[in-house]
Amino acid sequence: MERIVKANDREYNEKFQYADNRIHTSKYNILTFLPINLFEQFQRVANAYFLCLLILQLIPEISSLTWFTTIVPLVLVITMTAVKDATDDYFRHKSDNQVNNRQSEVLIDSKLQNEKWMNVKVGDIIKLENNQFVAADLLLLSSSEPHGLCYVETAELDGETNLKVRHALSVTSELGADINRLARFDGIVVCEAPNNKLDKFMGILSWKDSKHSLNNEKIILRGCILRNTSWCFGMVIFAGPDTKLMQNSGKTKFKRTSIDRLMNTLVLWIFGFLICLGIILAIGNSIWESQIGDQFRTFLFWNEGEKSSVFSGFLTFWSYIIILNTVVPISLYVSVEVIRLGHSYFINWDRKMYYSRKATPAEARTTTLNEELGQIEYIFSDKTGTLTQNIMTFKRCSINGRIYGEVPDDLDQKTEITQEKEPVDFLVKSQADREFQFFDHNLMESIKMGDPKVHEFLRVLALCHTVMSEENSAGELIYQVQSPDEGALVTAARNFGFIFKSRTPETITIEELGTLVTYQLLAFLDFNNTRKRMSVIVRNPEGQIKLYSKGADTILFEKLHPSNEVLLSLTSDHLSEFAGEGLRTLAIAHRDLDDKYFKEWHKMLEDANAATEERDERIAGLYEEIERDLTLLGATAVEDKLQEGVIETVTSLSLANIKIWVLTGDKQETAINIGYACNMLTDDMNDVFVIAGNNAVEVREELRKAKENLSGQNRNVSNGHVVCEKKQQLELDSIVEETVTGDYALIINGHSLAHALESDVKSDLLELACMCKTVVCCRVTPLQKAQVVELVKKYRNAVTLAIGDGANDVSMIKSAHIGVGISGQEGLQAVLASDYSFAQFRYLQRLLLVHGRWSYFRMCKFLCYFFYKNFAFTLVHFWFGFFCGFSAQIALDTSYWTFINHVFIWGSIAIYFSILFTMHSNGIFGIFPNQFPFVGNARHSLTQKCIWLVILLTTVASVLPVVVFRFLKVNLYPTLSDQIRRWQKAQKKARPPSSRRPRTRRSSSRRSGYAFAHQEGYGELITSGKNMRAKNPPPTSGLEKTHYNSTSWIENLCKKTTDTVSSFGQDKTVKL
Where's the P-type ATPase C-terminal domain (predicted)? Predict the structure, then answer.
């Protein structure tokens, strides 16, 4: 379906019933909270079971327990859970309200009025100012910059902090800031329906009897921030939930741990076991009633035939279901939640996960997933800001075969540069970047000595780029960069004395060692993913024409003149050394051009630009022609600085058999470099598969070739001892991971991933990916990140964890079993959507391997003990049923034992801590100073824990033999009293049944019923002059007791006893 939007006409747009700009990330409201939350809670089998039990207890014929013994703990559990859920949802409402109540200037009735974001409608025209968040998906109409340009930061969408350029149509950019003309604007936009594709938009603007095509470059998306642009006007195309940001945001899901699912399964099995016990006891009751029960009817005033044995067994069955309900204890869930809460506090209080630089502690934002941390099999990680600091630093370089960036020691050996070394004192301190440091003084000496190769190298860095410069209010030079790599190189040249000052469409001005030099810009050969290089052609003040080029070494080395072979070999070794250190490298080269040759070439370039057919191919051919016979100058090495401890964390997690997948919106080369820097990718790997197909057929073929290649190599290495899955089935449940010997990696870009996630291809993708040690997905959208996580979750039955720091990671974090947010430089969106948060990636190691293992181990131990305790308690009633005529009576006075338990447990804890706090209180010493002389070691020996342990062990060791001895003596060597008791029991059994006096036992008991890197550079934009500004913008209750009255007494001894027995006397009685 398509969308039709008319500017400045709310009545016209309302008939299409488009969504307003209000967003909802919360799950409940006042009306829906109770029914939805109760529905979610009663999905727990135990809660549903106790609800049924409560209903049974309301029937007096079968219940021997009062109904509130079940309803009190049930209501307590449900209330505690509901309060926690309500608290979490309250914060979501609070966050939503904060966003919805942001102010924006909207053009209404020919006036700019402040409106809340939630009141913005489709078709409205909005004014944005510098550093302001974009309220909705807008069609850019005009801006303060020339030709309707504006700059936006898309960190919340794709994780990249570098600026993107958007430009308005020429017909709308003429509207400027004229409110009257903007109010009369009545253009109609026909475009695609709301979708989640961040890099694609198709539409047509109809205005003034003409149509204009629209693409993604004309659209500013919600979540972006306007940068370096004083103001701009935009027309709302998508609002609220229809915006691409919200389309990429996953829904909040109810997360459960594997322990929860196991407990639900156990509860079902135990309930089945309870039914079996009830059936056995019911059958026993029916048999007992039919054979023995008739003798009791005289005393119970039953009418003959009023109650059949079968009906009695039926009622007994339900009575025992109630009595034996402790085998499925509701207190289990309360105890589990208490343990989880304690584990959450352990995480919050962990000083080893506290980041002192930002005073940020680790935070367990949920209390229900702790034990799941110990079962993680797959980690899905963002790159920018998660693995890296998103800070590019110029570290080393190779110029004319010599490496700079190393500090030789006294023995002329390379040593590692540390902060203890003295940094270089730069030439122009006033204009140097204060954060930039370089420790190799040899480079500065070469500059001062006038080395022409070094000067030319730095000149290339200062001229060959797309950086824009401006001065802030303090007069400091500020660079706006398209890529952080370019910013690092230009900043390095600036600190070494070659300062990029300004540019126009025809010139570039730099300051070379204090002298301003203006170069005429003759041509700009832009970067793209195919060329992997960029070049500029300039004329220097002496009239010489120079071509300066920088790019990937694999591409640029093919363009060198044959005379560079020696330098090429040396530089290649240096590049290998740089790459081994995880640095990002570029080769630098230049060429002198003849004036006549350049004029002829430039004429052909103009003709190619004017061509209507094969324009791109002709231009690419001309670029190839002039970018040849280059002279190599050297290479640069830039560090995309990793966060501290990333390499060690990745290594430890890999040793724990946890697979790490990197899902990033960055370009492929960058992601691969970071993979090598983190040791996720290594040169020792058997193979690295790169999937870059442009359609489903190509992607399927590449995936199958990679799998065949992997399987073939695997068979060769293992000599045929590898289990290979030969069946090709589309059902993903049938995928069996092959036994792989060797390390493999898979790299796939977002465009290919979109085809690979289709139903008939994803089986191949998942099977290949799971056989690889490392998987890197580049240029993926936020929704694709979530789809990859869902794929592994659904078909591998593995526990997954997603970690990220930006808004573009929210979908992935919500989709995984556990979401971890890093409080980095891209806001708190990821933290707010996460289950756990901390400041550094390295803390993930301790979270999983320490807290996760502890939580899982303790929970398993607790569950084993808890079920043992409850089975032991419940089976007592089962066995007692055989001695009470299966009458559903209670064997234990639970109110009494509950009281004793509470007294001993809480009393012992209270006494222990009261003594502990008293002995260690800082106030008690001041109150009673004479009581604490602490003379000698004997006085404070009892404060040592080992002393109390010795006392405890000694007591147990002393008491236990006596207890065992008494037990064995009664059985092996009984006394006269013991023999009498045995004789009495034997006499009772020998008496005929008619002589036994029937007795009834009555008891009453109450117990508890327990992002995207650019594909094309900005060269054409720069040379057109559209981005050049006329002027710089401004800166911007107690338990009730009942007692049994059934104390047993043995009657006086019979006269017919042996002589041994008669010696005790006729008047003596023995109490048992």
Answer: 831-890
